[in-house]
User: What shape does this take?
Amino acid sequence: MSNPTPTDSRVVSRRTLPLLIAALALASALVVALGWQLHQARENQRWLAQRATQPYIGMYVPRIAMTSLDGTSRTLGQPERDYQVLYFFTTGCPHCRASAPLVKAIAAQLDAASEGRAEMLGVALDPAAAAGAYAREHGFAFPVIATQDRRSAMLFRARNVPLLLVIGRDGRVRYARVGAINTKEGVNGVLTAVRRKEASAAGPTTKES
Assistant: This one.
């Protein structure tokens, strides 16, 4: 058998070079595609984790019967009128304490902004005695509910406080804010949400799945 001549080697190289380039391009494309899929999988996991732990617009909330500190029966998640504004807090939370002045401002402007179509309830994740003393200290003029039922709180995604939720008659969240309420943006967000007219006064119309 004769050895290939230099001319034959050059011919083989010319033929295999495009194949090698194509193979490298394909391998690079596969690496990029796999990297993108991994990135998307991580983003989906992050999104699912946020949905499970953080409140979001359009989220359904349950209806939970409770009693406020004044002895009145209340139902979280079921507005008596068009909207229910829920303010979740704890008495030992520094961000809640810093938010108290603007929470009071929201409560003071709520009736005018909603034309009487919204109610506000405070939900203290503390014993009743501590919640009552805190409400008096800060001059809360809205009803306050005290509960240590963390499971019920988590159904409203009250994992972190302070938390403000605006809930419509259909049980869906119209506005959500987690964290300190220390700017006018937080006040305006709530007031803008309750200014919207609900579609019907006949009550919620939801599909059971």
Notes: The chain has five helices and seven strands. Confidence is low (pLDDT under 50) at residues 200-209. The radius of gyration is 29 Å.
